[in-house]
Fold this protein.
Amino acid sequence: MQMSEEQLSIDEVIRKSDCISPDVAFVRMERVRSQGGITPKFFQGAPDLAVEVMSPRESRRRLKQKLIEYFNNGTRLAWVVNPGNETVMVHTSAEQVESLGPADQLRGGSLLPGFAFAIKELFEIPDFT
């Protein structure tokens, strides 16, 4: 079965001794193909888009370290989702950040042109009845 970009599970080997993985990652297909296509092995490199979901146990310092590693190794966009205050921090570098709240739209910029998602919908609890 051929996996699509969206189904690809990724861990990034940033340094030979270090393996970090965002909660969700997106890698453009041309980068996947440059490494021989989709394989059971880890993707070698940082994702184009890294998504981190903040947890009460993760320190802000560790999160900042991960963002620095991602961007130093080629990540173009990172979204940090904070369920506690229902915000998404959009990083275009480890230092450049924009805070979005429930009234805003999350956009993919030049990496994911046309992508838009209402932040409020991200935090809504679905009614399955």
In short: Residues 5-122 form a domain with the tt1808, chain A fold (CATH 3.90.1570.10).
